[in-house]
From TrEMBL:
InterPro entries: Bifun_inhib/LTP/seed_sf, Bifunc_inhib/LTP/seed_store, DIR1-like. Gene3D superfamilies: Plant lipid-transfer and hydrophobic proteins (1.10.110.10). It comes from Saponaria officinalis. PROSITE patterns: PROKAR_LIPOPROTEIN (PS51257). Keywords: Signal. The keyword Signal applies. This is Bifunctional inhibitor/plant lipid transfer protein/seed storage helical domain-containing protein.
Length: 120
């Protein structure tokens, strides 16, 4: 089987199109600003227990992280809660959205929508 230049060109072009789309998706504007949502989601690791179980105690490291996230990028928490990485980690959005209230964070945008959820 002979490899023709047109096949090589087509393959290279397809790779460029796919990689370009991937880079655009990775750099897409989001509510977390310059921080990619997966990185912000990974920073929620101290909150996993509290984001899975409404009865779980919210730790101080979790509250500090959430408060800093809300202060620097208020809507970022919503993007993180609804992200695929959070879902993979077992985070439950309906419970996770209550963490700012459970931490007694004053500036938590009460009543604002986050997907199907409302900030308590």
């Amino acid at each position: 089987m002979m490899i023709r230049p047109i096949h090589v060109f087509a393959t290279v072009l397809a790779c460029l199109v796919v990689s370009s789309a991937w880079v655009k998706q990775g750099n897409a504007a989001n509510e977390c600003g310059e921080t990619p949502i997966p990185v912000a989601a990974a920073s929620m690791s101290p909150c996993l227990g509290a984001a899975r179980n409404l009865e779980a105690r919210v730790t101080q490291p979790c509250c500090s992280m959430v408060e800093a996230l809300i202060r620097t990028a208020p809507r970022c928490l919503c993007d993180v809660i609804l992200s695929p990485l959070a879902r993979l980690a077992g985070l439950k959005p309906g419970i996770a959205i209550t963490i700012p209230k459970r931490c007694d964070i004053q500036n938590r945008y009460v009543g604002e929508k986050c997907g199907h959820y409302v900030v308590p």
